[in-house]
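ok so dumb question maybe but i'm new to this and my supervisor (M.) told me to 'just get the structure for PiggyBac transposable element-derived protein domain-containing protein' and walked off. so i did the thing. is this what she meant?? sequence i used:
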Amino acid sequence: MTINSCKSNVVHFRPTSFERPSHVFKCGDMNIATSSEYAYLGLVLNEFLDFSITAKAVARYARNFITRNQHNISNKSRVHDWHKKGKLTLIEFKAFVAVIVNMGLIKKATISEYWNRKHSSQSTPWFRKVFTRNRFQLLLKFLHLVDNRKIAPRNSPSYDPTAKFKPIVDHFNLKAKKHYSPSQNLSIDESLIGTKSRTVLRQYIPTKHAKFGVKLWMLTEAVTGYCFHFNVYKGKRYDPTPAGELQGSYVVISLLRAACLLNKWYHVFCDSFFTSLSLAKRLLNLHSYTTGTVRSNRPLPNLIKSVS
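this is what came out, is it supposed to look like this??
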């Protein structure tokens, strides 16, 4: 694949006045020597998978929702505006993603605050120029990545609580490996996306700031923090640990295997939840190193136990 750095539908470069980071990105076998975070976003969010397909999924879900609930929707509901605005276009959906990204950069208490006109000191006119508040909230309401008719029901043996957003997780993990090669030192840890919603994915971690949320197992580059692969923890019921194996060890091996980093002498750093003597031996047999703190109640050689 050849990339024109001046004009491309895949990678978008900022003006040359912006400082370029030192990271090296790849597109296939070709290195992109100069790149920015914005250019990398263009690589990850390609038009074919994320924009065109997702825009069609949003339109399909909106159409099905309105048809299914047409007798229960009140006359004052903003849902009636969906058809008045017309068909959801690719450009409009790209604008929706742009608004989501900017909301992550500009923090406000509620979504409606981005369209607040009452206080000029808190006004953010860019959001009003891109979308009306009602149109944005409609798109947010109907945001879907998959066809609900193809998802296994909750009482099915094949039910997956992550099914509705699994395509974007899989896509991110694929793109993360394609466009970047990590240095030798890696880090594995848990992360929490705070939420108060009712879901079987919600976990309680008292040491985290949010405490309640969706837990992720993260494999990152130790120096830069670049996320190379992550898995969503589904809970004991849907994501059980194999019998006779520690959960931490299982997570480490699973992440490295999924990221295709075993047998390459990568060095993994992790905390006491993951570290064990059995994991160190297993990784060494898989041509990988590990360093981390270890809990005293886990099997250890007497030489190590005797050290105060």
